[in-house]
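### Sample
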Amino acid sequence: MITFFFNGSPNPTKVALFLEEAELPYEPVAVDTRRGEQFAPAFLAVNPNGKVPAIVDGDTTVFDSNAILLYLAEKTGRFLAPPRERGALLSWLMFVATGVGPFSGQAVHFRHFAPERVPYAHDRYQFEARRHYGVLDRHLADRTWMVGDAYGIVDMATWGWARMLPFILGEEAWTGLPNLKRLHDAVAARPAAARAVALKDRFTFKPEMDDEARGHMFKHLASSAA
């Protein structure tokens, strides 16, 4: 039985999608980051970086969502590209991990959560997030899936963030990204995707982004005030 530490944010949701697609038995363990549960000693023993998702599979612990996707795909032999596409799979999986995810996260922070408006930071991360999604869209112009001829873990990783595009970039986010929208819709229509998104609704998470939540999620604020 896999123990799956998660919340409803994009990175855990893409791992939930794999678990549901593969019908792997797992025990979900909610980690409420707005209450600071990611810093509990028991969780830091699983992921010293204090972030979700993470899994424990017997004697194996894996953290970072894209590492988990690759681990699970190799464990099950499912949702991997053909061997000739191994380089492309690793390249696009890391593109999501090191580009799409971080720039999207910073775009969200400066758009929604920064305590003061910082035009330079806002504009830079909005630009870079949209640029990365544009790279994905152009790649998908002549193909159905991100790598090879079948649905796989890179599509799951891409969907995890793409489903949040209006929150990341604003209500007109899909303008100019028709190929990415097609991929998003294809994945979102899968029953496993609906189950992955609904997983968070089985638990109670703190809804407010209040001073307590900001103190847990944005530790630099406490450091700068000291």
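The chain has a mean pLDDT of 95. This sample (Disulfide-bond oxidoreductase YfcG) is used throughout the tutorial notebook.
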